[in-house]
Amino acid sequence: MEKIVILTGAGISAESGISTFRDEGGLWAQHAIEDVATPEAFRRDPDLVHRFYNARRAQAAEVAPNAAHLALARLQERHRGEVVLVTQNVDALHEAAGSRAVLHMHGALAGALCARCEARWPAPMVMATRDACPICGAAATRPDIVWFGEMPYGMEAIWQHLEEADVFAAIGTSGNVYPAAAFAQHAGRAGAQTIELNLEASQNTRDFAETRLGRASVIVPEWVDAVLGN
């Protein structure tokens, strides 16, 4: 049976109201990436980093899945083969839509991580530097987010899924960030059909056999309907 591997990026959550890196006036526009999304930033000013991610967590709590998230959950439920969902997003909109076993390669706003012992636990809505790790007691709490310069989570499993895929789809991704930007080439070399669904062509659009442009809430449900034969 056909195995489908899907990568989603910021573009799929933008219509739900989650800011992307490039949004003018959004949370990211108020801060330089190197000030809030690197290990060095956390060592330099952990309070600023926590304030930023507390704001992102609050923003994410106020939004709902859109038609694209719901369509992918429907695909997972109804497709006779395996559907593997990998996301670069740190929100929980896929889960809220009903998707299961989502691979969050860049971590999740819902998680907390001890920078000393690497223990993990559910994040409260507001986190602070002084919060003690429930395992080792160190005041070294950080968001369980993969920052620039850190290794994304689950890469061994993701590469394996890509090699086994019959279809690889990238939805709402910029094609700027590696290793995700290499997924289409990797899956294509292994024999997968590759398709990009995006608002505009990504930086690596040449790596895809097919590109469909438009709003995710429109083109993703259309694609899912076609896959399911509706």
Automatic annotation (TrEMBL):
- Quote the record's binding site residues for substrate: 53, 56
Annotated residues that bind Zn(2+) are located at: 114, 117, 133, 136
GO MF, one term, reads: protein-malonyllysine demalonylase activity
Gene3D superfamilies reported in the protein's UniProt record: SIR2/SIRT2 'Small Domain (3.30.1600.10), TPP-binding domain (3.40.50.1220)
Q: Where is the Deacetylase sirtuin-type domain?
A: 1-230
Q: What class of enzyme is it?
A: transferase
Q: Which cellular component appears as one GO term in the record?
A: cytoplasm
| Cofactor(s) in the UniProt record | Zn(2+)
Q: What is its EC number?
A: 2.3.1.286
| Similarity section | Belongs to the sirtuin family. Class III subfamily.
What's the protein called, per UniProt?
NAD-dependent protein deacylase
Species of the source: Roseovarius gaetbuli
Taxonomic placement = Bacteria, Pseudomonadati, Pseudomonadota, Alphaproteobacteria, Rhodobacterales
Gene expressing this chain: cobB_1
